Amino acid sequence: MTIIVTGGAGFIGSNFIFHMLEVYPEYRIVCLDKLTYAGNLSTLEKVKDNKNFRFVKADICDRQAVYKLFEEENPDIVVNFAAESHVDRSIETPEIFLQTNIIGTAVLMDACRKYGIKRYHQVSTDEVYGDLPLDRPDLFFTENTPLHTSSPYSSSKASADLLVLSYYRTFGLPVTISRCSNNYGPYHFPEKLIPLMVINALANKPLPVYGEGLNVRDWLYVEDHCRAIDLIIHNGRVGEVYNVGGHNEMSNIDIVKIICKTLGKPESLITYVSDRKGHDLRYAIDPEKIHKELGWLPETKFADGIQRTIKWYLENENWWKPIISGEYRNYYEKMYGKRE
Ligand code: NAD
Ligand code: TDX
């Protein structure tokens, strides 16, 4: 079995590669990644010498490079994690999101059609459903919730999902889609809420909370997401969408307070800054379908997962320090420098 994992030098893709090489030591895993600002080869350090692992630097929009890789590897399965993934960046520069997230998905699926494939899996997001009101805790996203996106990021992901389903209907491509809630865990890029707050708190820097910090996200430990994708690519029904989430809703401010408490830092570091444009209020997944059909359940409780994650950042400065000292500094200054 050969699996091409795109975007495998990023947060979730790398954790998926670790999971697959551990659970299926006989599988060949080929990582295709452009190494954008969000992709780091150092993330893949511990698997780089595994004889069943290969890394290829390429852009999923580069048709020639993608076709060449399919010719060389003749993959059975493609799992597409490659994406521009940060909502704030999509508000600054939407175009790259359309390019990678939509066109890149089409190129990968064209390669799957041309060379034949057992499964193409699209890693999507709960953000395609838009948001839920804060005062209706009884409402959840199901796979039948209409797509209703808010940001250029989520719109590009929803477009890709529609394209994937159209390749199933029109060309009979054997596809599946997973729509997961917010992940957290090791190798999460420092621009995202949890790592950003951990890293800033460690340096006694302000903790920039958007708006009033009352927006709610449904957090899932990254390894639980990886297990869900593993189940879907092996046992999921072709043409189907599976929501993935662990019924773990938390407001942003509560998360930031947990981080302060764990690190022994004062809550006075919390700084309320201007809100994200179009900021989604609440995400909450109904994971009934994947539970019933594939027996998936989350295994990591948030209380344990967040401690494990914070510990990982404490012990892995050598991973994140080089990242925040490079181009990231300019990004941080641009996004937070003048923000009030
Ligand atoms: P990430 O930003 O950490 O990693 C993205 C990876 O894709 C990087 O390694 C980057 O180099 C690579 N990449 C970007 N453009 C590329 C291109 N054109 N060609 C090849 N590689 C390219 O993202 P993540 O948080 O790991 O998210 C992975 C996927 O999961 C994304 O599709 C995202 O939409 C989805 N998702 C993320 C979350 C979350 O909470 N992070 C939740 C649900 C779904
Ligand atoms: O500095 C910050 N302050 C703050 O209050 C940052 C970076 C974020 N926030 C808020 C915005 C959100 O309500 O925290 C929440 C989480 O923000 P992000 O970490 O940027 O994640 P989110 O926008 O929820 O999107 C994430 O989950 C769904 C991923 O980045 C997406 O790729 C995924 O699809």
Please describe the topology of this protein.
Layout: E1 2-6, H1 11-23, E2 28-33, E3 53-57, H2 63-73, E4 77-80, H3 87-92, H4 94-115, E5 119-125, H5 152-171, E6 175-180, E7 183-184, H6 193-202, E8 207-210, E9 216-218, E10 220-221, H7 222-235, E11 240-244, E12 249-251, H8 252-263, E13 270-273, H9 288-294, H10 302-315, H11 317-325, H12 328-336
Parallel strand pairs: 1-2, 1-4, 2-3, 4-5, 5-6, 6-11, 7-10, 8-13
Antiparallel strand pairs: 9-12
Helix pairs in contact: 1-7, 2-4, 4-5, 6-8
Which radius of gyration do the C-alpha atoms yield? 19 Å
Q: What kind of sheet is the major sheet?
A: 7 strands, parallel
Low confidence ranges: none
Strand order of the largest sheet: 3-2-1-4-5-6-11
Please report the number of helical segments.
12
Bound compounds, each kind once, are: nicotinamide-adenine-dinucleotide, thymidine-5'-diphospho-beta-D-xylose
- The best one-word shape is globular
**Secondary structure category:** alpha/beta
Mean pLDDT, as a whole number?
98
Helix coverage percent:
40-55%
Query: What is the terminal-to-terminal distance?
Result: 52 Å
How many beta-strand segments? 13
How is this structure best described in words?
It contains twelve helices and 13 strands. With 340 residues, the chain is α/β, with parallel strands linked by helices. The strands form four sheets. The chain has a seven-stranded parallel sheet with strand order 3-2-1-4-5-6-11, with helices on both faces. Thymidine-5'-diphospho-beta-D-xylose binds next to helix 6 and strand 8.
